[in-house]
Write a structure and sequence with these properties.
Blueprint: H1 13-37, H2 46-61, H3 68-82, H4 88-102, H5 104-107, H6 112-138, H7 145-178
Helix pairs in contact: 1-2, 1-3, 2-3, 2-4, 2-7, 3-4, 4-6, 6-7
């Protein structure tokens, strides 16, 4: 209904395409970042370090655009591109997604510094879980340096990635409000 009480006209094709593109954007943008991070630059753990902030941010601020099946597919993409044991990235990202979704109501009202500290804790847990899964699945004790490097890169990249994603999220909200 419009403000005068009349029925709103049905959405046209372009409006539906626009709404669909906005709904799919978080998943495609996170997938793009994962693929971009797979470019061989010699930094191990870069793929996971880029995937974590995207999943964390979009789960909190646009949970409908980042459902668990999409997180599963992004985790599978991460595992395939990083040559990690299949399922380790999927499980890690799904756990981060679940925790972020569970605490979303509290986290959405927090300051950036609080969100960064929460993300630091999640990144530490994700790095520890990745190390443990590699140890269990590979039947050996892996070195801790790659996990620590992954944690450091994720924590260091989060402010820049969150800044970009915040701008994109704000632009998407403005576009939705204009409709």
């Amino acid at each position: 209904m419009d403000p005068k009480g009349r029925r709103a006209p049905p959405m046209g094709l372009l409006r539906r395409l626009d709404a669909g593109a906005r709904a799919a954007f978080p998943a495609f943008f996170t997938g793009f970042l994962i693929i971009l991070a797979a470019v061989p630059v010699g930094a191990p753990g870069l793929i996971q370090a880029v995937a974590l902030p995207g999943i964390f941010f979009w789960t909190i601020f646009r949970p409908a655009a980042m459902p668990a099946p999409v997180v599963f597919l992004l985790g599978l993409l991460e595992d395939l591109l990083s040559f990690a044991p299949l399922g380790s990235g999927v499980l890690t990202l799904l756990i981060v997604h679940g925790i972020a979704l569970r605490g979303r109501d509290i986290m959405v009202r927090q300051s950036f510094l609080s969100m960064w500290l929460i993300f630091c804790a999640m990144a530490a847990g994700a790095a520890a879980l990745g190390w443990a899964l590699e140890a269990v699945l590979g039947w050996h004790i892996p070195p801790t340096a790659p996990g620590l490097l992954e944690f450091g890169i994720a924590v260091g990249l989060y402010p820049a990635i969150a800044w970009v994603l915040t701008r994109l999220h704000t632009a998407m909200r403005r576009a939705e409000a204009a409709l």
